[in-house]
Amino acid sequence: MPELFGHTRAHVGTRHALITPDNHVNSSVPGITGATTVVLVSPAMGARVVQTQITFQQGGSAHVAASDLQTFGFVMGGGALASVGDERARLGDGGFFYCPAGSDWSLTSPKKGTQVTLFQKKYVPLPGEEAPRAILGDQKDVAGTPFLGDPAANLQVLLPDIPAFDMAVNIFAYKPGGHLPFVEIHLMEHGLVMLSGEGVYRLEDSWYPVRAGDAIWMGPYCPQWFVAMGKVPARYLYYKDVNRAPL
Ligand code: UGY
Ligand code: MN
Fold first, then answer.
1. pLDDT, tens digit, 9 for 90 and up, residues 134-174
2. Rounded distance, CA 128 to CA 123, Å?
3. How far is CA 120 from CA 67, 131, 222, 229, in A?
4. Residue pair 190/221 in contact by the 8 Å Cβ criterion
5. Residue 111 CA, ligand 2 centroid: distance in Å
6. Which of 28, 169, 189, 191 is the most buried (most CB within 10 A)?
């Protein structure tokens, strides 16, 4: 049932934000054509990451030149040809790419309606560590593990868990009733998109009913907790900054 006019489940605050599909407004972003592009999380709201949702029309494409930004892209539906530097692969639903800082990337020949989530962050090198390389993969090839031993909360870590990477992107899948074991409070921030199912997200001192399509930003030290509800598993894709000293 649509929400009554003038109402929204969304909230944008200084330490967290929830943006629902009803709130989406297109931004024109250089290099992305033939697509609806919604910038859901950005430094304009206090974040240090950019989370963008692209929905391609037939014939749309994205071409982004090399810079000091690294980009992770995840296909939430449909498929497209992805190129990162000299590497290329056709990505379907659940496919992903990682483009390191200093490389260019593109998405071309998308199926109509292909939806992609991007996380982009300025890369912070770590002295003595070789910079990360391009990755083209698929979430179905990434084994999951029970989070802190709980089989109701399964975690897939999509990027290598090594010091060279200063960002992590994971998928959490919860059985109905599965939940984070405690209210987390941590330095690292998150950008998140609900891939499927529904549940309740606690952010600071508010509890939000959430479902597939919703996007969340959790700033540093945002108290956070999730419980899956409903009849089907709830899954979300999320970003986290990792492996760098706080000062
Ligand atoms: O990795 C995390 O910090 C994760 N457990 N947080 C979250 O799902 N909100
Ligand atoms: Mn967390």
1. 999 999 999 999 999 999 999 999 999 999 999 999 999 99
2. 15
3. 11, 16, 20, 30
4. no
5. 33
6. 191
Taking the alpha carbons of 16, 96, 136, 67 in that order, is the dihedral positive or negative?
negative
Nearest ligand by distance to the CA of 172: 1
CA pair distance 208, 163, nearest whole angstrom? 34
Residue 10: C-alpha distances to residues 3, 32, 187, 192, 238 (Å): 11, 26, 24, 14, 18
Pocket test for ligand 1, best of 180, 188, 202, 222 (most atoms within 8 A of CB): 180
Render pLDDT for 23-72 as a digit per residue (tens, 0 to 9). 999 999 999 999 999 999 999 999 999 999 999 999 999 999 999 999 99
226 and 183 in contact (C-beta within 8 Å)?
no
Please indicate, yes or no, if residue 16 is contained in any of the structural domains.
Answer: no
Pair 136, 32 in one domain? yes
Cβ atoms of 160 and 190 within 8 Å: the answer is no
pTM equals 0.98
Q: Are residues 30 and 133 in the same domain?
A: yes
